[in-house]
Amino acid sequence: MNNHLIQKYNIPGPRYTSYPTVPYWDAGSITVDRWKDTAVRAFEESNLTEGISLYIHLPFCESLCTFCGCHKRITKRHSVESPYIDAVLSEWKTYRNLFDETPRIKELHLGGGTPTFFSPDHLKMLIDGIMEHSPITEEHEFGFEAHPNSTTREHLKTLYESGFRRCSFGVQDYNPLVQKTINRIQSYEKVRQVTEWARETGYTSVSHDLIFGLPHQTLENVADTICKTNEIAPDRLAFYSYAHVPWIKGTGQRGFSEEDLPRNETKRALYETGKKLFSEFGYEEIGMDHFALQSDSLYQSLLSKKLHRNFMGYTASKTQLMIGLGMSAISDSWYAFAQNEKTVPEYEARANSGELPVFRGHLLTNEDRIVRQHILNIMCHFETTWERPDNQFPELEDCLQRLTEMEADGLVGLSENKLVVPEHARPFVRNLCMAFDLRLLRDAPDARIFSMTI
After folding, report:
1. Whole-prediction pTM value?
2. ∠ at Cα 66 (232, 259), nearest 5°?
3. Which listed residue, of 47, 59, 108, 305, carries a Cα 20 to 30 Å from 122's Cα?
């Protein structure tokens, strides 16, 4: 890749798990009652035709991984499990009481934190409590994230019997120095073992999460990690760029020096090395940061143009309503976003009192929804169109004008009513999305609030 273009476009920018991005949410536009109204509206419009998605945030971890940007609570006390599950089930009951019909669950995802911090019995209690009053759709997909060191055969068996067929193991890197620096020590043998257990149990899609740009990473050890990963042959892969934002995430990401991090051309070379190896090993590139074998549902959704992106990353399909349960979980009705309280005590207190524990959110304007769809199209399908009036907005021409330099650099193709991203320009997708980000353009931040785009 052209190093000049990397230097030119490697600027701070959002990751676009939502639009508007969280720093640009208008807190004054949303109240709990307004959020309820949009959730009910989305439910009525989509429950019978497509069902809903549930994301359940299980925030506990026994130790702190210093690369992590997630909302978590570090503890070795497993007595926290049962009270937390009670709160999640209370929150789910409050949501069910909003709706006139029974929710039909299409997607269910357990994220963290470390979901396998919880015992198999407690996970069964949680899932049974969710499913007791809610049927699942015919084409449903249940998945969970797991730490290889804390995942047992019993975890895999219990969740499989509850309908889970996807699991994702956080690997990051196999190099001992990198693992020690990020406080994430797990052996290749352990990862291989739990992956084999998952396949023996019957899971049809196993994913491994890898990260490039970690402290002390080199081309050699990233290549070694990917070659080891290929020996295990997971069905899909996430290859995330490490987002160094210690000014947001606090002490965890201050556990090493920025001088230890690969920068600019070196970091990009890590990605290009990974991408080349993934292709050689039969993995297809899916959107940004994701790769899958052709047999995996994520690749099939790319071909059928059903690929979707939300706060969980890329998914093989979408539902209009996604309800986030648990501490800091984010919900999405397409008309609004709502985020739960970000500490366990505050979350549990509000959930157990029978109220929705929302502490902030954003009510999307019509302009927001149009721009959001363009950004989703670019990130999922590498193209977008504005031929129809409902795909247009007053500042569209200004947005396209901001892309002329990227067009001259060969990073985007523009025609009268269409934008197309060439394959070689996919690493610059976040920069393309920024040209449509009206809220960012109207109110540029005074201080750095985003990680680098490339």
Report:
1. 0.93
2. 100
3. 47
